[in-house]
């Protein structure tokens, strides 16, 4: 009987060849299509990568397929960091030149809002926000208000100020409108109609009756 030489190595442990390191990309964006630079990828309390101008942070991980790493994403100032860690499973692709990608969102804490306003019969009216004028309607009653640094996921209230003397006949007085700001920059429209109330005529009111003796005209004596 012939013995296969390869089988003669009884008792020797066959060691598995270690897997090569795996490159992984974490792609960070604030909004769809807007990469976020400066987001840190943290593992075991240490920063192991930071996103570049394209929003890409490259990681080199060691281990076998099926292993997993839990990393924390710390977004730059002004952006909301994810509340949960990102789990990256080690899974090598068929094409070793391609790196697995994992998307992460760092939404802005504030948003930019534009309000296009049309006030019928409301020319030259101040547009107030938080008690301050942020715009004024033109001679036709139109105005465009740009508000930056508005808290995301909140609401804002604009008021058309009719307290000036030239606007005291407008009805309604000081109308307001509420706009809900969601997790994105947005454009709102506001159409407000005013009725011009005719000024009231002042009624003649007789003065108070005079009391006491009334002097009578006297004749002159020559």
Write the SSE topology.
Elements: E1 22-31, E2 34-35, E3 40-43, E4 46-50, E5 56-61, E6 68-74, E7 86-89, E8 101-105, E9 110-120, E10 126-129, E11 132-136, E12 142-151, E13 154-160, E14 170-171, E15 176-181, E16 186-193, E17 195-196
Parallel strand pairs: 1-8, 9-16
Antiparallel strand pairs: 1-2, 1-5, 3-4, 3-6, 6-7, 9-12, 10-11, 10-13, 13-15, 14-17
Structure characterization notes:
The protein is mainly β and 222 residues long. It has strands at residues 22-31, 34-35, 40-43, 46-50, 56-61, 68-74, 86-89, 101-105, 110-120, 126-129, 132-136, 142-151, 154-160, 170-171, 176-181, 186-193, 195-196. The chain folds into 2 domains: 19-105, Immunoglobulins (Immunoglobulin-like, Sandwich); 110-196, Immunoglobulin-like. It contains no helices and 17 strands. Strands 1, 2, 5 and 8 form a 4-stranded mixed β-sheet that branches. The chain is rod-shaped. 17% of the residues are buried.
């Amino acid at each position: 009987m012939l013995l296969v030489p390869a089988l003669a190595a009884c008792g020797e442990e066959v060691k598995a060849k270690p897997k090569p390191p795996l490159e992984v990309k974490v792609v960070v964006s604030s909004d769809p299509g807007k990469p976020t630079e400066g987001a840190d990828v943290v593992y075991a309390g240490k920063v192991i990568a930071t996103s570049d101008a394209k929003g890409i942070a490259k990681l080199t991980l060691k281990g076998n397929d099926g292993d997993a790493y839990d990393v924390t994403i710390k977004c730059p100032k002004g952006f909301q960091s994810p509340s949960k860690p990102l789990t990256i499973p080690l899974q090598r692709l068929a094409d070793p030149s391609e790196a697995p990608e994992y998307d992460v969102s760092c939404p802005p804490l504030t948003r930019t809002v534009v309000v296009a306003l049309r006030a019928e019969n409301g020319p030259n009216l101040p547009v107030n926000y938080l008690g301050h004028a942020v715009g004024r309607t033109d001679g036709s009653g139109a105005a465009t208000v740009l508000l930056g640094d508005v808290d995301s996921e909140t609401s804002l209230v604009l008021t058309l100020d009719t307290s000036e003397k030239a606007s005291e006949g407008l009805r309604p007085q000081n109308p307001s409108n509420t706009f809900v700001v969601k997790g994105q920059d947005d454009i709102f429209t506001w159409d407000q109609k005013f009725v011009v109330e005719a000024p009231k005529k002042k009624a003649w009111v007789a003065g108070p009756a005079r009391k006491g003796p009334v002097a009578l005209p006297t004749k002159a004596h020559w």
